[in-house]
Amino acid sequence: MVDNGSTDDSSEVAAEFHARWLPLGKNVGLAPALNRGAAIAAGDFLLFINNDMRFDPGFVAALVEALGKNEEIFATDGMQFNWDGSERAHLATRLVNRRRPGSHSSTELVPGLYFYPHEANRDTLVYTGSAACMLVRRLLFEKVNGFDDRLPLGYEDVEICWRAWLRGWKTVYVPTAICWHHVGSSGRSQEGMRMNFRGILRGRLLLASKLLPLRYAVRTWLVSAAGLGKDVGRLRWSFAKDRIKTLAATAGLMPQLLHERKELFGNAASSPEKQLDFLLQLTDDAARF
Fold this sequence. Notes:
- The protein is an alpha+beta fold.
- The protein folds into 3 domains: about 40 residues, no CATH class; about 140 residues, Spore Coat Polysaccharide Biosynthesis Protein SpsA, Chain A (Alpha-Beta Complex); about 90 residues, no CATH class.
- Helix content is about 45%, strand content about 20%.
- Strands 3, 4, 5, 6, 10, 11 and 12 form a 7-stranded mixed sheet that branches. A 3-stranded antiparallel sheet has the order 7-9-8.
- It is globular, with a radius of gyration of 19 Å.
């Protein structure tokens, strides 16, 4: 159990259940915390979960069974209900470069690129899993150098699965691995909302700059910068300040991100355009798995 600077009785709960306890002293962000936990964990598989969840008794077994079918499977991903079980909060993730009409509820990944949940009744390939319920093969996790430590909250799962797919390592959604998630419970305070805001903004900028075709990177930066006007117009001064700081800090990473971009796609003998086309094709070809 990795503690990102909590002030409750988490340490006592961990001790009660004889869990290994890793206190970080402060909130270092989600991706760094996950990486630090992985570094001291034992075993061939790493199961990443959130603190506001509960699980079906067969949850872990279902993920392990699916992961064991093929050594080129990087991660297996579970199905999440909301806390009271009235809705499916996370299903097979589908990626599209257009808004989905009608019954599909799409969410913007970056400007011009969307994802939506899809009901699947058997194991199916997906472009990403959820870091709240994702089992990863340790050997492959270490080969991709884990989550990107520069992601404080959000996009850490998309980014690592995207890099794994660049190496030909699959992510598979397993509908029989069932869990319940108190979605969004950590982001209801003002502090939580601001951290979510900074994390999502940083995630969009980093993902687009590092892994997406140039048109998406440029659009993401332009839309993110233009949002400052909306923040000011709505008198959201704290969010405007957060936006400026996040934009500036991420801009400072651009030389490093561009170097990583060149290296990643050079090693894969691919391009951001080819990789995006491949992941979009997963949506159309999902039934083949």
